[in-house]
Amino acid sequence: MVKLRAVLDTNILVAGLSSQRGASFALITHALAGRFELLASPALWLEYEAVLKRREIFALHGLSTGDVDDVLDALAGIVTPVQSHFLWRPQLRDPNDEMVLEAAVNGQASFLVTLNVRDFALAASRWKIKLLAPGAFLLLLEKTP
C-alpha cells in the first residue's frame, strides 16, 4: 500500500486545534494514526510553533503552551522531515506561504492541504501537487484503504 504524502499548511493546525469538530482536527488525528505521511521542513516546523504560540492564536484554541508543545511533540514523532535543497522563491503572492510550497516541492508531496486553496493554485499546478481543502483531503483519506 502506498501511503499518501502531504504537507499541511499552518492554517490547518490552527483550525484543527481550535475546534475538534472540523476536518482539520480529523486530519491531525489521521496524521498521528499514520493514515498519511506528514511532511514538514525545519522552516515550516518553526512556523507551526511560532504561529500556534501567538497570543491571538492562543485565544482561538485555548490551549496552554505546554499543550501546544505536547501536540507538536506528538507530531514530531511521526513527521517525515524535508530538507529544502532548493528554494523556489518567489512563486506565491504571500511570501509567508513560500515555506509551505517549498516543503511540498522538496518533499515530493502528492498533496498540499490548505484553507487558502486559491493562493496556492497556480504554483501547485506548476509542480503537479494536488491542492486540497481539509474536507476534500479527509474524504480522500476515508476512501483510501
From TrEMBL:
InterPro entries: PIN-like_dom_sf, PIN_dom, PIN_toxin-like
Domain PIN: 5-118
Pfam families on file: PIN_3
Matching PANTHER family: SSL7007 PROTEIN
NCBIfam families according to UniProt: putative toxin-antitoxin system toxin component, PIN family
Name the UniProt record assigns to this protein: Putative toxin-antitoxin system toxin component, PIN family
Organism: Rhodoferax ferrireducens
